Give the backbone structure.
Amino acid sequence: MAELQAETAFVPQRENAKLAVWAFLGGEVVFFGTLILTLIVFRAREAAAFAEVRTLLSIPLVGLNTFILILSSYLVVRALGAIRAGRQRSLLWHLAGIFVLGALFLGGQALEWSTLLAEGLSVKSAFGTPFFAITGLHGTHVLVGLIWLVYVIVLALRGRFSSVSYLGVETFGLYWHFVDVVWIVLFTLFYLI
Amino acid sequence: MNEPKTHPAAPRYAWVFVALVALTGLEVGASYLPSRVRVPLLLLFAGAKALLVVLYFMHLRFDNRIYAGLLLIGLLLVSPLILIVALIIPAG
């Protein structure tokens, strides 16, 4: 009976958690999409303010931060490949690398925020409101990802993953890649256009 | 039901990573171009990067199509709104 259910389900039952994460990410698309909508409105109404602040933004620093996040996404793929091949130690090294890169990203963002605030960019300004709100919410997602990652690392240390059981790594990876995709869009909209 | 295809080998992921870094470099370079050229070019680069991550790193190209459908529902809900607002606001 259980086998029959597994075969007739839309996705294999062992992948229910993955299905749930994808459903959550679908909701996140709407969440960040709405925030981007707000940004477009702010930008169109306050074009002069946006152009003025553009000179304050450090493209090299944020470009480096973008590279850090992309590299962390690549390490996630490598981590998944490692555990699929049954390489527990390699999985742990990759997960540790992702944690360091995620923390570096947040550090870079904190540095950027403090520099902008010191230069007089107000949270209540036409640029500051959407900028701090949206990049802050993205940063919160990175922080949640890091907390989730600590949990995955603890499970990995306890030997809970193997070449046939790695859904915990995979679902974390989906979330982390999504956070990377959101940053790709925000990097373009806030800093480059 | 769509059976997942075989996941790509590690070297292909490395190429995706290289492409993402190269596109980021191109984006930074393009940000200094005049806005008439800059805006469509940057949107194209960002779209390409997002697609690479979703299709390869998130395995959507090789996984069950149900997952792609869930992501698409979110996109279909929000993208018409973004498009309408982007078209209306500058004129208003």
About this structure: Chain B has three helices and no strands. The mean pLDDT of chain B is 87.
